[in-house]
Amino acid sequence: MRVIVTLIVMCGIALAQPTTGEQHSARGQALYKQGKYRDAHAAFAAGFEASKLPAFMFDMAECSRLTGDTEVARGEYGKFLGLDPNGKLAPLARQRLAALPAAPPEPAPPPTTTPPAPTPVAAVPPPAVVAKQVEAARPTAPTPVLRAEESPPLWKRKSVWIAVGVAVAAGTVATIAATRHAECTGACLDWTHQ
Fold it and tell me: I want to staple 69 with a disulfide (CB 3.0 to 4.6 A). Which of 64, 87, 106, 138 is the partner?
């Protein structure tokens, strides 16, 4: 007896829970009432995928119509009418389908004209002729006067500074030698003992 009561209670609970289609429908209806037609369309599309009920396709078409996606709405109304041509929403679907703006005409294919004939290319002159033409076209500039390589200024020359250093050293030695006593021997060279 207990098992039967448990089974009845479990079946009642399972029947009381909304199906996936009902959940998508409730969500889609709530979004539709808030004016969130794109979100509602997504909820109705999920409901259609879960249940394949034609009413979801009708709701999707309504959302597409209200968002201005007339081509999508046209396709969805057509699918709805293919799934439920005699249902209670079929007359409204036909009315809405007829009220949609006409589909833009298919763009005309580009005209099939033959492309224009290629422009003939002039014969290319031999390279020697081209070289002569290029040489003749060059402007003649005066021939530059050849100058000897410019040398750096005197103060930038290394040899001048070496000579100056040698001269200063030689002058210093000569000055020291001239001012020393003639009797000075090697001990005089020690500067600290003077």
Answer: 64
- For 174-187, write each residue's pLDDT tens digit: 777 777 655 555 55
CB 77 within 8 A of CB 61: yes
User: The whole model's pTM is what?
Assistant: 0.47
Fold exhibited by the domain 20-99: 1.25.40
Residues 6+ apart with CB under 8 A from 66: 37
Any long-range contacts for 28-32 (C-beta under 8 Å, 24+ apart)?
A: 28/56, 28/59, 32/59, 32/62, 32/63
Supply φ then ψ for residue 9, to 5 degrees: -65, -45
Q: 39 near 51, Cβ under 8 Å?
A: no
Contact 53, 21 (CB under 8 A): yes
The Cα–Cα gap between 32 and 42 comes to 11
- Six token digits for residue 157: 């020359």
